[in-house]
Amino acid sequence: MANQKLLSVTDLQICIHGPAGRLYPAVDGVSFDMSEGEILALVGESGCGKSLTALAIDGLLDDDTVQSGGSISFCGKELSRLTEREKNTIYGKDIGMVFQEPMTSLDPLMRIGKQVGESLQLHRKINRKERDKLVEETLASVKLENTKELMQKYPHELSGGMRQRVMIASASILRPRLLIADEPTTALDLLTQEEVVKLLKAINADSGTAILFISHDLKLVSQISDRTAVMYAGKIVEIGHTDIIVQNPAHPYTRALLDSVPSRKMKGRPLGCIGGRVPTVTEPKPPCPFAPRCPLAKAECFDRAPRVMERGEGHRVCCNFPI
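Above: the chain's sequence. Below: its structure in token form.
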């Protein structure tokens, strides 16, 4: 893996517009870097701010959401300072995105071949014959069969797994430097999940594409990522090499996520669960937002903001009383 910094997210803050124009923090001070060719996972329950972070990187925040602070730099360029023309040369070409539910991302009235080749029309000056050939090759590379026939079909004619492969083909056809995969396996069965993970790993290995992989499943993340960042209530609570995070978690939330994953070791024993729920953005929170759900919480957790502690080898945890 190269050491060159590809993506730098620094103190990112994202707010959601509420009643009477009030802004509520949904992502609060998130910072992380990615190197060329790296696979980094963002992990956490729904509502933790993972997808908002990804949308901000890809310039897709909607009108009700605003980046209120921090910076996002890609290849040394601050994305918010770029002109629309400069952004158009990066998004879709150098940064691609695979969404959780392809049926909401694919145009139901456009044939598959045209959709996958759309970015080629925008970013490459090639004729239709060359474009169709590249589309067909890319569809085949994501293990789709009968590609000529497939190019003439519409999204509703495909299975969920095939649609997700089409999304991966569309996002990767230009060999982007960064691919953001926002929970791409959530709606798929276990076998198809494994196949999608293998496809993403192959794209990473063959093209050197860095991947930001977003998931709530630490077991799945352990199969693909080099490093993992665990998010809770808009903050990164732990980050480090994936094998360290999985084998020696330092934050009680990370430990609770791991304990809730089914495994052979847990056979015959009750599956762990995390009591309570992730607080909404409008709810008041203690200095440590996980404290109300944490089995190890002490009085200080409700009075004092957790400290970031270095554990060595790039492993950091934000907790007053790490494991």
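DSSP finds eleven helices and twelve strands in the chain.
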